[in-house]
Amino acid sequence: MDRLQKEALVAEMKGVFEEASVVVVAEYSGLTVAELTGLRTKMREAGATFKVTKNRLTRLALDGTDYGSLSDKLKGPVGIAYSSDPVAAPKVASEFAKANEKFVVIGGAMGTTELDVDGVKSLASLPSLDELRGKLVGLLQAPATKVAGVVQAPAGQLARVLSAKANRVRCRSHYFSLLQTARFT
Question: How far apart, in whole angstroms, are the C-alpha atoms of residue 97 and residue 112?
Answer without folding.
Answer: 24
